[in-house]
Amino acid sequence: MQLPSFKEVYSGLISTSSISSSDPSWDEGNQLVIEKLATWLKDVGFEVEMVEAAAGKFNLIAKKGQGEGGLLLAGHSDTVPFDEGRWNFEPHALTEANNRFYGLGTADMKGFFAFIIEAVKKIDWSKQTKPVYILATCDEETSMLGAKHFTDNAPFKPDYCIIGEPTSLVPIRGHKGHVANAVRVTGKSGHSSDPALGVNAIEIMHEVLFALMQLRDRLIKEYHHPGFAIPSPTLNLGHIHGGDSANRICGCCELHYDVRPLPGISLDGLDNMLRGALKEVQAKWPNRIEVTPLHDAVPGFECEHSHPFVAGMEQLCQTPSQTVNYCTEAPFLSQLCPTLVLGPGSIEQAHQPDEFLAFEFIDPTINILSKAIHQYCFD
Ligand SMILES: [Zn+2]
Fold this sequence. Notes:
By secondary structure, this protein is of the alpha+beta class.
């Protein structure tokens, strides 16, 4: 049987649109790209299962080999939407130019599956002792539904996991989490000449801001992780809008803020801290302060620096591991086993017009994947 070429697979992945977005006018299913992937993985000898995590949103789970443990190679099959008019190349086609592959998802990260297929094609499996698993998730760019669904229902427990997000082939052993909330203060508008006619939402927001800034200082004082360039959690006040004119008592004011917790701070724990910080001002102004999440929260993630998997992959990649500031599916998948984020292409190109993957990553990536499979699934 003629196995698909690296470029055929890469081009098939990029030309099969699988955008996920919280904006329904952009949001697509990923069934077509998962079906293509399933066909190629069967061609190279994997058993494949498609799991529908939500309507039209699929995870693909593939397995080669028997036994316990083994290595899981994971990634997401969706992409973000693209800025129409800002691309010089067709987003849904693989274009070769300037020693790069251009296209939506070339780096972040459908291309990773083309690298996996190319690596496994060349392997002599006769001495395999542990299974190799491949996971392609849905909806990473929005709710991380696919990774959560897989982790909650995982049919196996691998020894190790590599998530092929674009890290320029540097093993990433940790990242902070992300929580973003809106605080909406509802006052009562009235003529500015008599403050007794209303309840000023901006004045209440002033108390909310004070409480959040106290919490920010507390987070800095109480949490510290020397493995991060910014070694404490951050709390940023990012957007505020309230009122409409100087001669009206402000009836409504809304604030958006985000928190980036260090790994080890649970989302529940953080939520308790955030609630606790606003407790006093909420008691003072009952039913006037409402907090709602702006998106699904993602916890931080860390694979202990001292873990042998970190040293093993550092040696295999010939480069020290790092921590980063963007979020991935690692907080979920690492509930199953030690996990590193490691893949071709640069995060600088993710979510950008003219996203590309430089050719210089091709051979080293196939080499690293092949060596990792041998190291963790072969005698
Ligand atoms: Zn990604």
